[in-house]
Model the fold of this input.
Amino acid sequence: MSKALVTGGAGFIGSHLSDKLINLGFEVTIVDDLSTGSLENIPSVARFEDLDVNGEGAKEKLIELAKDTDYIFHLAAIPRTQYCVENPIECHHANVTGTLNVLEAAVKNKVKKFILSSSCGIYGPQEKLPIDENAPINMGTPYSVQKYMQELYVGLYNELYNVPAVMLRYFNVYGTKRQTEKGSYPNVLAAFSKQKKEHGKIYVTGDGEQSRDMIHVFDVVDANITAMYSDLKDCEAFNIGTGKAASINEMAKYFECPIEYIEPRPGEAKHLYSDTSKAEKLLDWKAKISFEEGMRGYINDTTK
Ligand SMILES: NC(=O)c1ccc[n+]([C@@H]2O[C@H](COP(=O)([O-])OP(=O)(O)OC[C@H]3O[C@@H](n4cnc5c(N)ncnc54)[C@H](O)[C@@H]3O)[C@@H](O)[C@H]2O)c1
Done:
């Protein structure tokens, strides 16, 4: 039986990924400090370790937990942009030093693949669309700097210590199990669900014509599984998006409630969407779930 270690496995994406790995017959160990994740998200057959990847003794504990592990998926992070603006040092330790501890476990256990959950946040606002992997890195927040540092360290560990690795730059991920209360990665759909529940209407900034590349969590899980099995020799970064932009107005209409238009957010990029041709070519991966299909499922699940 192959073994996988998933950091951040009690969170939104990590728990979906753990479910999938278990379905594929993997023995899964989840490492999570439950800071934004939840025990309810953890599949009952997974081994769970309540551990801060940046806590005292974390490196040694991770090395021990990853014994005989074939694949490490590193998702544990504080992925909240505003929180990282307010607490840059705490987030640096969790997001960057924590990644180094997990990488040490990958080196010591000679894992077959280290798969990093990176972010399109490293691109920041871009003039040229769609965004491909060669776009200028335009970090404007501590979170995006930290995600980029994760990539730099993964690249370095690949070069210096031969850790086979793939880095996946997710665009805006949506789907069920997302937490709106405790924090988690901010997402317009989660915000709309909460506003509708609490105020009976939703708030759209600006004219609502700004757009984002919304990718369903099942497609993100699929990208992780594809990356795990890939035989790429170099450590590459891939955009994981749909390649299409959905406007905020298009998203809003699925909520079937009144919309109040409010002041635009300063500095907010108008349009962001991915070019995924690199992943299509080198990983043979492409998103399968259309925005319409994904939204119908999302609304169905979140309003039940
Ligand atoms: N959701 C998105 O749209 C999106 C987009 C781009 C990148 N990402 C990346 O994907 C990954 C997962 O994001 P998510 O949306 O599932 O967020 P999430 O907050 O639901 O999951 C993160 C998990 O990591 C855990 N965690 C945080 N700090 C930890 C620490 N120091 N030690 C151990 N566990 C810790 C949390 O408890 C949580 O369960 C993150 O690395 C994030 O940067 C997410």
Notes: The mean pLDDT is 94. Residues 86 and 142 are 9 Å apart (CA to CA).
